[in-house]
Amino acid sequence: MAEDEFDVLIVGGGPAGLCSSIALSRRGVRSLLVEKHAGTAPLPKALHLSSRTMEVLHGWEVDDMLRPLALPLGDHALFAGSSLADPDHVRHPIWPDNPDVSRQRSVLISQEILEPALLAAAEKIRPGELRFSTRLTDLREDDGPWEPGVVARVEGPDGTRTVRAKWVIGADGADSTVRRVAGIDFPGKDVHRSVNILFRADLRTLVSDRRSAFYHVHNDIVHTLLAVVDNEWFWRLHVVLGDGETYADYADERRQLELVRAAVGVPGLEVELHSCYPWTGSARVASRYRSGRLLLAGDAAHVNPPSGGLGMNAGIQDVHNLVWKLVAVVRGQADEGLLDTYEQERRPTAVRTVAEAVRNHEYEEAPALTERDRRRKHARRRQDGLVLGHHYTEGAFVPDGSAAPEVAEPYSDFVPVGRPGHRAPHLWVTWQGRRTSLLDVFAEDRCTLLVAGPRSDPWADVLPPATQLITVGIGAAAVPEQEAEFREIYGLSPGGAVLVRPDGIVALRMRHRPDTTGARASLADAVEAMHLSETG
Ligand SMILES: Cc1cc2nc3c(=O)[nH]c(=O)nc-3n(C[C@H](O)[C@H](O)[C@H](O)COP(=O)(O)OP(=O)(O)OC[C@H]3O[C@@H](n4cnc5c(N)ncnc54)[C@H](O)[C@@H]3O)c2cc1C
């Protein structure tokens, strides 16, 4: 391939773009990432990486380098009081861990600390290339003498260059150029206008007995959220503008100081104001995720209010869903129809995520809640139902006619199931001599057939290409234990099996051991649903 020809052009060096680069490089796919700014984003925004996102990052082997950057687990709490100094404050744990459902715990890392770490990981692995201070200015599809692809114009320190790529991932944020060029609408609404006041103040002693991730503060002067950056010196005051207020009302530094001191509850507190910037919390989902060779991911595809910390997580999971499909298409192992399942799966997920974030915002801003809504709001301190239990209703899998489990609170309540379209459930197992999660047995470049019990027949004889077979049960060669638990959670009898995609989603479930013809036919259905070629 010539110097400026790539399999994939990634536009945007935020979390979605950096993760795309990491995931593509791991699979040996040549990509170029262009980011218009000179470096990663300097301002704190996202803070929360969910347990599912940590599972994904673990699969890309970047979780270990991130954990030391995280705030202590004891900080996973919500504080409510008249100010930080309020002796009568209340404090509730949020996002509690549940090692029965995920090996990973959610972590808190401020985005301006996370992004350089992701960048370092992306720079470490080849063949992905990253160019900062480089802006995409133009993009067109080209079926010319070169093989079909896209011609992009990028402006960087060396002037304007032309780059060719087979595919483009538009990870270029809410104002996406790729989305505009693709002519894709971004319908929705603005939910709130806000200002972020960033400041430095030594609050270590004040919060030492009440450390939390988010401090909700309500008094006569402020009704606001104080979000942590490092939970010691650096803080972000998030003020939602009231009716009739304008950004100009917050431009005066004396006003900013007054708000900060009122939120902290210490008159005369020594404060160094860092910056104050307006932003709008919106609820929008792109009408399409793909136009020809252009694909959208992250905030380019969906934006939501920050309540609940869902936006960046959704973007990283877009990438996880997209990359194995893109790799299969680039390698000629799947037809392009597989890329249409990206939108089929991820767009409804975004619609739900955005709606849940809006609901979180409404609960936070409501002047008063009914008893029922108060209980619901409190239940949302756990988000396993959304994060681990969310499932696809159509896409690259074979539905088996069963119904999804019903739960009282779909946001918080989670029932692990091996139903097609769901994340394959976690189970503690011993694998290659290590105590680990069954999820660690899956491979990112192949499908995995999990068979209940020690016998691999008739599956081994009809295994599709690029598929590994793992037996789970007493006496099994691969995972010689946990048969009863595995069968119960996955809904299998001995000899039944599930086929798991490279992104950990169940593609097929055969509850009972079939004969050879039945096994071959059901696996062929799954191969077809995943648009994979018969020969690999
Ligand atoms: C106050 C706040 C708090 C938040 N808290 C959370 C949270 O706790 N958890 C959570 O999950 N999410 C949270 N979010 C949302 C999260 O910050 C975003 O969802 C996330 O940054 C989106 O990542 P992205 O990579 O898709 O887009 P971005 O981070 O917006 O990155 C897009 C990149 O593309 C670049 N770009 C744009 N156009 C071009 C071009 N033409 N050429 C080259 N480069 C270009 C931009 O410079 C930018 O760097 C929060 C957001 C805010 C504002």
UniProtKB/TrEMBL annotation:
PANTHER family xrefs: BINDING MONOOXYGENASE, PUTATIVE (JCVI)-RELATED, TRK SYSTEM POTASSIUM UPTAKE PROTEIN
GO MF term list: FAD binding; oxidoreductase activity, acting on paired donors, with incorporation or reduction of molecular oxygen, NAD(P)H as one donor, and incorporation of one atom of oxygen
Superkingdom of this protein's organism: Bacteria
Cofactor(s) recorded in Swiss-Prot or TrEMBL: FAD
The UniProt record lists the keyword Protein biosynthesis: no
UniProt KW keywords: FAD, Flavoprotein
Domain FAD-binding: 6-356
UniProt-recorded name of the protein: FAD-binding protein
Record InterPro entries: FAD-bd, FAD/NAD-bd_sf, RIFMO-like
